[in-house]
Amino acid sequence: MSVNYKYLWSNYNYIIVFIGIFIAFLFTNGSDTSWTSMTNILLHSAILGTIALGMGFIILTGDIDLSVGSSFVLVGGLTIIVYNQVDNIFAGLIIAILLGMVCGFINGVLVGWLLMPSFIVTLATMLIFRSISQYMMNERGETRYSVDGSLSSYSALFKLGNGELLTLPVIGIIFICIAVALTYISSSTKFGKRVYALGSNPRAAKLAGIDIHWTRIKVFLLSGALVGFAAFLKIAKDTSFDPATSGQNFELYAIAAVVIGGISMSGGRGKVASIVFGTMSFTMIDKIITAVGMNALLNDSVKGLILLAAVGLQMVKRQSRSG
């Protein structure tokens, strides 16, 4: 029985790329590779990966969101302020998700209802959200937002962010559970089918009776909720937020994780599950760069080249299909 390599690459390229990067990771780390170092990949992928899952839905519609890093730090800062007042983990989580949805709703209304270009809208809100966060911090006369609750609440929060279950990081398990739920939503619900239809052909989707305006708003709301959830995971892991550096370049890293995962930047094609592999691949690339001793100032240059290569592969695939 012959193997259809073209079919495998076309449908499972994100797994093949992941395996290739994983082999490179093992090779460069050598004797330093252990089960802990591998589970750390999942740990360090969880926060960015949660944001990337929301970005994946936005890109599937053919839009983009450049504000996720800034909304991440704004939501994180506001959540810590509220959390220090209520001193309750569950309330902190709900507040983070709701604040994230507010940021997503603002973007969604401007893009989905007022029909403004998502690139321009989210470029503007990227500047607005981080500026507000830095202004708030300056007014408070502090250098960073820090959790300052009761000892029991602080300990429970830190344990959530840094604890393990069956040797796996808790926040990594949460990330995988979110990915499974969103994979189901994207592939087996009316909403998921509408997202793909909108990204494939907005005009045809509209003629088919899909409310493309409200669908776009829903997608930005979903992304905002995930940014809020990611901000809460960051709080649980580090118990602080720096408005100047937290979430820096997260919008670009989330896009890179989505593209490496094989989701088309033109919208309508790709699998949400692939974002998990794309995010972990991106995390391993960062670790490989560190392992080979490359100058830290060149890290983003390598990541940029990899992003260009991933987009180039998408173009080759598209041309081969059309040819």
**Percent of residues in beta strands:** under 5%
Helices and strands, in order, run as HHHHHEHEEHHHHEHHH
Biggest sheet record: 2 strands, antiparallel
Radius of gyration: 20 Å
Low-confidence stretches: none
Main sheet strand line-up: 1-4
Quickly name the level 1 CATH class.
Mainly Alpha
What is the end-to-end distance?
27 Å
Strand runs, count? 4
Total domains, how many?
1
Topology, please?
Blueprint lengths: L4 H25 L5 H26 L7 H19 L2 H25 L4 H23 L4 E2 L4 H12 L1 E2 L2 E2 H19 L1 H11 L1 H6 L4 H27 L1 E2 L8 H11 L13 H18 L7 H24 L1
Antiparallel strand pairs: 1-4, 2-3
Helix pairs in contact: 1-12, 2-7, 2-10, 2-11, 2-12, 3-4, 3-5, 3-10, 4-5, 4-10, 6-10, 7-8, 8-10, 11-12
Keywords: Cell inner membrane, Cell membrane, Membrane, Transmembrane, Transmembrane helix, Transport
Organism: Paenibacillus catalpae
Subunit structure: The complex is composed of two ATP-binding proteins (LsrA), two transmembrane proteins (LsrC and LsrD) and a solute-binding protein (LsrB).
Structure characterization notes:
With 323 residues, the protein is an all-alpha fold. It has one domain: ABC transporter involved in vitamin B12 uptake, BtuC (Orthogonal Bundle). 76% of the residues lie in helices and 2% in strands. It has helices at 5-29, 35-60, 68-86, 89-113, 118-140, 151-162, 170-188, 190-200, 202-207, 212-238, 250-260, 274-291, 299-322; strands at residues 145-146, 164-165, 168-169, 240-241. The strands form two sheets. The chain has a two-stranded antiparallel ribbon. It has a two-stranded antiparallel ribbon with strand order 2-3. The mean pLDDT is 90. This is Autoinducer 2 import system permease protein LsrC. It comes from Paenibacillus catalpae.
